[in-house]
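Exercise 7 asks you to align residues with tokens for two separate proteins.
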Amino acid sequence: MSRESACVKGAWANSAVRVGAVAIFAGLLCLSCASDPAITPASGLEIARDPSITLFYDRAMGFYTALNNRRVNSFMTYQDEFLRAAFRDHGQFSDYYAQLAESLREDRFERTEPFFVEVEEFFIDGPGRARARIHFRGDNSFPLRWWTVSHIREDRWEREGDEWWIVPGKL
């Protein structure tokens, strides 16, 4: 057997081993996805079977995503109809908005503009009641401070009919 044919034969053998290993890995991956993982109350995970919880998640994530990289104390953000739609009326939105803008200003966010808004956790308190813990991060407004500042707040949500609404705290 020539040296060239041995190299070709070895290359084919190596690729066959690779293809076999990939096939085995893919099979194991499919089996692990098909079986239900052991989700217990002790693990802290729970599968949401109620469609209203899915509606809450979608509405809350949309609202907080819309706050990302937005200057909070600006007229354009205040007039944003998408943000206003998460509240029962304009008075509740104004209360929430004023409270959020003041909190970010007190925590020294530059231009009250968080560059990162992350939902840390959702809590389902009961039927039609939930809370969201949100983490805001932004640049420091003090001169010569290169580190970021952060603010963590918890918002209450309530369901009325098929709609979830943010319930602002009292000023």
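Second protein for Exercise 7:
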Amino acid sequence: MLGNCIRNYIFKSERLKKLYLEVPYYNYRKLFYLLYKILSIWYDLYMTLHTRNRVMTGVLVFSLLAVCSIGILAFYSISHQIFRFPSGDSFGAVSLFYFAAPYSFPAVLISICFLTVSVPVITGLMMAHFAKTQSQECLYFALFLLACLTESIRLFIPFLGLWKSNASFLITSTRIFFFGRLLAPASFLFSSIFSIVGQTQGSERNSGVLFAVTGVIALLIPVNTTRILPNCTVGIGFIPFFWVYELTLAVLTFVSLLLEAQNNGPERKRLAMGFLLLFTGYILLIQTLSMFSLALGIIFFASGVYLYLVNLHQTYL
């Protein structure tokens, strides 16, 4: 059956069909099947790794440009006295991870800057240690890093003094960072599911579908520019849906990684723990309103990234 499938695929090309018919013996035909299959797998793997490395390079370059742009914007905002703190009527906003600690606007800024700066650092480390491995999880992790980078758009609110503005820029920026928050858990879910079923050759296609679907959802979400929260975010509709979405995808990812660990050794179990720490830290950082939640978020995020990437690298050694 496998031979017939390969033969049918070969016959789609006139050159391969001609070469196939010129082979005189059945044993040589079997050898041709084998060689052709090996070459096909090698070519698909090469193209997939090439695509993955290009995506990681793009994320690295784009994140470095974003960091430089934010630095220039911060200098311009402070030097021209455009920078504005949030107004007092915004302090009553309720966050899912609002701890019993005083509100700290510097903590909000530090959390955004931490996520932004961590993207080029982590991407550079991944390119140094994963460039020649066959790990397709790196492609989905690069999408997660891109989702972290979208949080930097929130800095435009204090740097440009947009707390009381009803500008269309707020609508666009809100859709951008909300797209990132939809993309972050979905990228991990796609990584865990497709690694279980063994579908690694189409990872670039799967990531493209993921990118498109989350982008469409972000475009459809209603935005309330009259309600700007003290963590530099704009009010959006369907907040319960968003948290159900985040929690559901995180649980599914954790469970799928644990199921995979039953057949692939203890590294996958530690990978699941790394994801749990990493994603918890990510949620804490994007919802930071105090120094306490900031400290917890940085600890969880950093330890989770380390545990996740180290065990992912050991899996493919």
